[in-house]
Amino acid sequence: MIRLSRFVRNQVFFLVVISLLLLAVIIWSFLPGSPLNHLTSPFSAVFTPVQERFNAAADQVSGFYESLNEGMALRDENRDLRLENAALRNQVAQLEEAGRQYEQLKDAFKMKDQFAGYDLIGGRLLTREIGTWFDVFRIDVGTTDGVTVTETLTFAVVDAQSNLIGRVLSTDAVSAKILPVLHEGFAVSGKVNEVGGSLLRVRGDIDLKPQGLCLIDQIPANATIEIGDEIVSSGIGGLFPAGVPIGRVVNVIEADARDQRQAWLEPYAQLDELETVFVMIGRAVE
Questions:
Q1: How many structural domains compose the chain?
Q2: Digit-coded pLDDT (tens) for 108-148
Q3: How far is it, in rounded angstroms, from Cα 145 to Cα 193?
Q4: pTM here?
Q5: What is the CATH classification number for the domain harbouring 225?
Q6: Contact 279, 118 (CB under 8 A)
Q7: I need a labelling partner for 237 at 20 to 30 A (CA). Which of 29, 48, 98, 129 fits?
Q8: SS in 3 state form for 200-257?
Protein backbone atom coordinates (compact mmCIF):
# COMPACT_ATOMS: atom_id res chain seq x y z
CA MET A 1 0.00 0.00 0.00
CA ILE A 2 2.86 2.38 0.80
CA ARG A 3 4.55 1.59 -2.50
CA LEU A 4 1.28 2.14 -4.42
CA SER A 5 0.68 5.50 -2.78
CA ARG A 6 4.23 6.61 -3.58
CA PHE A 7 3.75 5.51 -7.20
CA VAL A 8 0.57 7.58 -7.51
CA ARG A 9 2.29 10.66 -6.09
CA ASN A 10 5.13 10.25 -8.55
CA GLN A 11 2.67 10.04 -11.44
CA VAL A 12 0.85 13.21 -10.34
CA PHE A 13 4.15 15.06 -10.00
CA PHE A 14 5.22 13.88 -13.44
CA LEU A 15 1.94 15.06 -15.05
CA VAL A 16 2.21 18.48 -13.40
CA VAL A 17 5.78 18.94 -14.66
CA ILE A 18 4.83 17.86 -18.21
CA SER A 19 1.82 20.25 -18.20
CA LEU A 20 4.00 23.16 -17.15
CA LEU A 21 6.58 22.34 -19.84
CA LEU A 22 3.88 22.15 -22.53
CA LEU A 23 2.43 25.48 -21.41
CA ALA A 24 5.86 27.10 -21.55
CA VAL A 25 6.46 25.67 -25.06
CA ILE A 26 3.09 26.95 -26.29
CA ILE A 27 3.75 30.44 -24.94
CA TRP A 28 7.27 30.48 -26.39
CA SER A 29 6.02 29.31 -29.77
CA PHE A 30 3.73 32.33 -30.01
CA LEU A 31 6.54 34.80 -29.38
CA PRO A 32 7.64 36.41 -32.70
CA GLY A 33 11.22 35.50 -33.72
CA SER A 34 11.55 32.53 -31.38
CA PRO A 35 12.84 29.23 -32.88
CA LEU A 36 9.70 27.43 -31.80
CA ASN A 37 7.60 30.00 -33.65
CA HIS A 38 9.08 28.78 -36.95
CA LEU A 39 8.82 25.14 -35.96
CA THR A 40 5.17 25.37 -34.92
CA SER A 41 4.01 27.45 -37.88
CA PRO A 42 2.65 24.34 -39.69
CA PHE A 43 0.41 23.71 -36.71
CA SER A 44 -0.94 27.26 -36.77
CA ALA A 45 -3.30 26.36 -39.57
CA VAL A 46 -4.98 23.97 -37.15
CA PHE A 47 -4.85 26.11 -34.04
CA THR A 48 -5.64 29.51 -35.64
CA PRO A 49 -9.40 28.84 -36.13
CA VAL A 50 -9.58 27.59 -32.57
CA GLN A 51 -7.72 30.65 -31.35
CA GLU A 52 -9.98 32.95 -33.41
CA ARG A 53 -13.12 31.37 -31.96
CA PHE A 54 -11.62 31.70 -28.50
CA ASN A 55 -10.80 35.35 -29.11
CA ALA A 56 -14.30 35.99 -30.53
CA ALA A 57 -15.88 34.38 -27.49
CA ALA A 58 -13.65 36.44 -25.23
CA ASP A 59 -14.67 39.59 -27.12
CA GLN A 60 -18.36 38.68 -26.74
CA VAL A 61 -17.91 38.12 -23.01
CA SER A 62 -16.03 41.41 -22.70
CA GLY A 63 -18.75 43.21 -24.70
CA PHE A 64 -21.47 41.68 -22.56
CA TYR A 65 -19.83 42.92 -19.36
CA GLU A 66 -19.26 46.35 -20.89
CA SER A 67 -22.94 46.55 -21.91
CA LEU A 68 -23.95 45.37 -18.46
CA ASN A 69 -21.83 48.05 -16.80
CA GLU A 70 -23.21 50.72 -19.14
CA GLY A 71 -26.77 49.55 -18.43
CA MET A 72 -26.19 49.73 -14.69
CA ALA A 73 -24.68 53.21 -15.08
CA LEU A 74 -27.72 54.34 -17.14
CA ARG A 75 -30.07 52.86 -14.56
CA ASP A 76 -28.33 54.76 -11.76
CA GLU A 77 -28.36 57.94 -13.86
CA ASN A 78 -32.10 57.53 -14.60
CA ARG A 79 -32.79 56.97 -10.91
CA ASP A 80 -30.90 60.15 -10.02
CA LEU A 81 -32.79 62.07 -12.72
CA ARG A 82 -36.14 60.80 -11.41
CA LEU A 83 -35.23 61.89 -7.91
CA GLU A 84 -34.11 65.28 -9.20
CA ASN A 85 -37.33 65.70 -11.21
CA ALA A 86 -39.41 64.78 -8.14
CA ALA A 87 -37.53 67.36 -6.07
CA LEU A 88 -38.06 70.01 -8.77
CA ARG A 89 -41.78 69.21 -9.00
CA ASN A 90 -42.03 69.54 -5.24
CA GLN A 91 -40.28 72.93 -5.37
CA VAL A 92 -42.62 74.10 -8.14
CA ALA A 93 -45.66 73.00 -6.11
CA GLN A 94 -44.32 74.84 -3.05
CA LEU A 95 -43.71 77.98 -5.10
CA GLU A 96 -47.22 77.81 -6.56
CA GLU A 97 -48.72 77.42 -3.08
CA ALA A 98 -46.58 80.30 -1.82
CA GLY A 99 -47.82 82.40 -4.75
CA ARG A 100 -51.45 81.61 -3.93
CA GLN A 101 -50.90 82.47 -0.29
CA TYR A 102 -49.18 85.72 -1.29
CA GLU A 103 -52.13 86.70 -3.49
CA GLN A 104 -54.55 85.87 -0.68
CA LEU A 105 -52.55 88.01 1.75
CA LYS A 106 -52.56 90.89 -0.72
CA ASP A 107 -56.34 90.59 -1.03
CA ALA A 108 -56.63 90.40 2.76
CA PHE A 109 -54.72 93.70 3.09
CA LYS A 110 -57.08 95.26 0.57
CA MET A 111 -60.00 94.06 2.69
CA LYS A 112 -58.50 95.65 5.79
CA ASP A 113 -58.47 98.97 3.96
CA GLN A 114 -62.00 98.48 2.67
CA PHE A 115 -63.42 97.36 6.02
CA ALA A 116 -61.32 99.47 8.36
CA GLY A 117 -63.61 98.88 11.34
CA TYR A 118 -63.13 95.11 11.27
CA ASP A 119 -60.38 92.68 12.14
CA LEU A 120 -59.83 89.74 9.80
CA ILE A 121 -58.99 86.34 11.30
CA GLY A 122 -57.74 83.89 8.69
CA GLY A 123 -58.64 80.22 8.88
CA ARG A 124 -58.28 77.09 6.79
CA LEU A 125 -60.99 74.67 5.81
CA LEU A 126 -60.90 71.49 7.90
CA THR A 127 -63.91 69.34 6.99
CA ARG A 128 -67.30 69.43 5.33
CA GLU A 129 -70.07 68.07 7.51
CA ILE A 130 -71.88 66.10 4.80
CA GLY A 131 -69.31 66.23 2.04
CA THR A 132 -71.11 68.36 -0.53
CA TRP A 133 -69.98 71.86 -1.42
CA PHE A 134 -73.09 73.69 -0.20
CA ASP A 135 -73.35 72.15 3.29
CA VAL A 136 -71.97 73.25 6.65
CA PHE A 137 -68.17 73.12 6.91
CA ARG A 138 -65.61 73.60 9.67
CA ILE A 139 -62.57 75.90 9.88
CA ASP A 140 -59.60 76.02 12.28
CA VAL A 141 -60.70 79.21 14.10
CA GLY A 142 -62.38 79.11 17.51
CA THR A 143 -62.99 80.88 20.80
CA THR A 144 -59.27 81.00 21.55
CA ASP A 145 -58.99 83.26 18.49
CA GLY A 146 -61.68 85.57 19.82
CA VAL A 147 -64.58 84.13 17.78
CA THR A 148 -67.50 83.43 20.15
CA VAL A 149 -71.04 83.05 18.81
CA THR A 150 -74.16 83.72 20.85
CA GLU A 151 -77.89 83.83 20.07
CA THR A 152 -77.57 87.49 19.09
CA LEU A 153 -74.01 87.64 17.82
CA THR A 154 -72.46 86.04 14.76
CA PHE A 155 -69.77 86.97 12.25
CA ALA A 156 -69.54 87.25 8.49
CA VAL A 157 -67.12 84.91 6.72
CA VAL A 158 -65.57 85.93 3.40
CA ASP A 159 -63.04 84.55 0.94
CA ALA A 160 -59.73 86.17 -0.04
CA GLN A 161 -61.53 88.42 -2.54
CA SER A 162 -63.93 89.65 0.21
CA ASN A 163 -66.89 87.76 -1.31
CA LEU A 164 -69.44 86.61 1.25
CA ILE A 165 -69.19 82.91 2.08
CA GLY A 166 -71.63 82.73 4.98
CA ARG A 167 -71.69 83.24 8.73
CA VAL A 168 -70.26 81.54 11.80
CA LEU A 169 -72.84 79.07 13.11
CA SER A 170 -71.10 77.79 16.25
CA THR A 171 -67.64 77.61 17.80
CA ASP A 172 -65.54 75.56 20.16
CA ALA A 173 -62.06 76.25 21.47
CA VAL A 174 -60.21 75.53 18.25
CA SER A 175 -62.77 75.40 15.42
CA ALA A 176 -65.96 76.90 14.07
CA LYS A 177 -68.84 75.71 11.92
CA ILE A 178 -69.68 77.92 8.96
CA LEU A 179 -73.19 78.18 7.47
CA PRO A 180 -72.72 79.03 3.76
CA VAL A 181 -74.94 81.39 1.73
CA LEU A 182 -76.50 78.48 -0.18
CA HIS A 183 -77.75 76.74 2.94
CA GLU A 184 -81.52 77.01 3.45
CA GLY A 185 -80.91 78.28 6.98
CA PHE A 186 -78.89 81.30 5.84
CA ALA A 187 -80.27 84.81 5.25
CA VAL A 188 -78.73 88.29 5.00
CA SER A 189 -80.02 91.79 4.33
CA GLY A 190 -78.74 92.97 0.97
CA LYS A 191 -79.07 95.82 -1.49
CA VAL A 192 -78.51 96.53 -5.14
CA ASN A 193 -74.98 97.90 -5.37
CA GLU A 194 -75.72 101.37 -6.69
CA VAL A 195 -76.49 104.78 -5.21
CA GLY A 196 -79.94 104.50 -3.61
CA GLY A 197 -80.06 100.78 -4.40
CA SER A 198 -83.15 98.96 -3.12
CA LEU A 199 -83.00 96.86 0.02
CA LEU A 200 -83.92 93.17 -0.22
CA ARG A 201 -83.20 89.82 1.37
CA VAL A 202 -80.83 87.11 0.14
CA ARG A 203 -81.34 83.62 1.54
CA GLY A 204 -80.62 80.02 0.83
CA ASP A 205 -83.31 77.93 -0.82
CA ILE A 206 -83.55 74.14 -0.72
CA ASP A 207 -84.76 73.96 -4.33
CA LEU A 208 -82.13 76.35 -5.72
CA LYS A 209 -78.99 75.22 -3.89
CA PRO A 210 -78.42 72.16 -6.13
CA GLN A 211 -78.01 74.72 -8.93
CA GLY A 212 -75.61 76.82 -6.83
CA LEU A 213 -78.11 79.68 -6.53
CA CYS A 214 -79.67 81.77 -3.74
CA LEU A 215 -83.15 83.29 -3.58
CA ILE A 216 -83.79 87.07 -3.44
CA ASP A 217 -87.12 88.07 -1.91
CA GLN A 218 -88.73 90.90 0.05
CA ILE A 219 -88.16 93.14 -2.95
CA PRO A 220 -89.96 96.49 -2.50
CA ALA A 221 -92.81 97.20 -4.92
CA ASN A 222 -91.09 100.30 -6.32
CA ALA A 223 -87.65 98.63 -6.59
CA THR A 224 -85.88 98.23 -9.89
CA ILE A 225 -83.97 94.94 -10.12
CA GLU A 226 -82.55 93.47 -13.30
CA ILE A 227 -80.45 90.56 -14.45
CA GLY A 228 -76.77 91.41 -13.96
CA ASP A 229 -77.30 93.65 -10.93
CA GLU A 230 -74.67 93.19 -8.22
CA ILE A 231 -75.97 92.52 -4.72
CA VAL A 232 -73.96 93.44 -1.60
CA SER A 233 -74.69 93.28 2.10
CA SER A 234 -76.66 96.28 3.39
CA GLY A 235 -75.19 96.38 6.91
CA ILE A 236 -78.68 96.61 8.43
CA GLY A 237 -78.92 94.68 11.69
CA GLY A 238 -75.23 95.10 12.54
CA LEU A 239 -74.31 91.44 12.16
CA PHE A 240 -72.68 91.90 8.75
CA PRO A 241 -70.64 94.87 7.54
CA ALA A 242 -72.11 96.90 4.69
CA GLY A 243 -70.76 96.49 1.19
CA VAL A 244 -69.62 92.85 1.26
CA PRO A 245 -70.12 91.46 -2.29
CA ILE A 246 -72.61 88.58 -2.40
CA GLY A 247 -73.28 87.87 -6.07
CA ARG A 248 -75.18 88.83 -9.25
CA VAL A 249 -78.81 88.52 -10.27
CA VAL A 250 -79.28 85.81 -12.93
CA ASN A 251 -83.09 85.69 -13.13
CA VAL A 252 -86.05 87.90 -12.14
CA ILE A 253 -89.43 86.30 -11.47
CA GLU A 254 -92.40 88.65 -11.78
CA ALA A 255 -95.55 88.12 -9.70
CA ASP A 256 -99.15 89.39 -9.71
CA ALA A 257 -98.32 91.53 -6.69
CA ARG A 258 -95.23 93.60 -7.45
CA ASP A 259 -93.96 93.36 -3.87
CA GLN A 260 -93.95 89.55 -4.18
CA ARG A 261 -91.37 89.48 -6.94
CA GLN A 262 -88.41 87.18 -6.52
CA ALA A 263 -85.04 86.79 -8.17
CA TRP A 264 -82.22 84.29 -8.33
CA LEU A 265 -78.68 85.15 -7.31
CA GLU A 266 -75.43 83.41 -8.23
CA PRO A 267 -72.90 83.89 -5.39
CA TYR A 268 -69.43 85.14 -6.20
CA ALA A 269 -67.75 82.81 -3.70
CA GLN A 270 -66.57 79.49 -5.15
CA LEU A 271 -67.63 77.32 -2.25
CA ASP A 272 -66.35 74.11 -3.81
CA GLU A 273 -62.80 75.51 -4.10
CA LEU A 274 -62.39 77.03 -0.64
CA GLU A 275 -59.10 76.64 1.21
CA THR A 276 -58.64 79.85 3.17
CA VAL A 277 -61.40 82.01 4.66
CA PHE A 278 -61.55 85.15 6.81
CA VAL A 279 -63.83 85.82 9.79
CA MET A 280 -64.75 89.51 10.07
CA ILE A 281 -64.91 90.76 13.67
CA GLY A 282 -66.04 94.31 14.32
CA ARG A 283 -63.76 96.13 16.75
CA ALA A 284 -66.77 97.66 18.49
CA VAL A 285 -67.91 94.26 19.79
CA GLU A 286 -64.59 93.22 21.29
A1: 1
A2: 556 656 677 888 898 998 876 654 445 888 999 999 998 99
A3: 32
A4: 0.61
A5: 2.40.10.350
A6: no
A7: 129
A8: EEEECCCCCHHHCCEEEECCCCCCCCCCCCEEEECCCCCCCCCCCEEEEEEEEECCCC
